Amino acid sequence: MTMTRGESLYQYHFKRHLDIDDVQDTLTLAILGAENLHGRARIRLDGSWRLDRQRRVCTIDASTPVGEDIAKLFTGYLGKEFGETAFSVRRPVQRAKAARQ
């Protein structure tokens, strides 16, 4: 899925010891959980995420209630499954915002 609004992005970075396939499975579980809350059509319309397997980075657009729920579920599942120190999550610095300052 493509990213839309930069100010509402969450970027997850994963330690090398994590199997990226397990991270993908956890993301899928979070998306399915959000689908149970919002319905399949709403996930397709309002959900936006990207897992870059090479860089070991997942980006979720949380500018909609669907995206917020995916991010919340994903963060919670990651912490329970892999531990809080196995990943980091932050909002990426926006180039346009930085240029204005």
Would you kindly provide a written description of the structure presented here, covering whatever features stand out?
The chain has helices spanning 20-38, 40-46, 65-82, 95-100, and strands at residues 9-14, 49-52, 57-61, 87-90. With 101 residues, the chain is α+β, with helices and mostly antiparallel strands. The protein has a single domain (6-100), classed as 2-Layer Sandwich (Alpha-Beta Plaits). A hairpin with a 4-residue loop joins strand 2 and strand 3. The model is unreliable at 1-5 (pLDDT under 50).
* CATH architecture name: 2-Layer Sandwich
Q: Given this structure, which CATH class is correct?
A: Alpha Beta
Q: How do the helices and strands follow one another from N- to C-terminus? A: EHHEEHEH
Low-confidence stretches: 1-5
Which strand-content bin applies to the residues? 15-25%
Mean pLDDT across the residues is 90
CA-based shape: globular
Tell me roughly what share of residues is in helical segments.
Answer: 40-55%
Question: What structural class do the secondary elements suggest?
Answer: alpha+beta
CATH fold-level topology: Alpha-Beta Plaits
Largest sheet composition: 4 strands, antiparallel
- Helical segment count: 4
Rg value = 14 Å
Spatial sequence of strands, sheet with the most strands: 2-3-1-4
Compute the number of structural domains: 1
Distance between the termini: 30 Å
Number of strands: 4
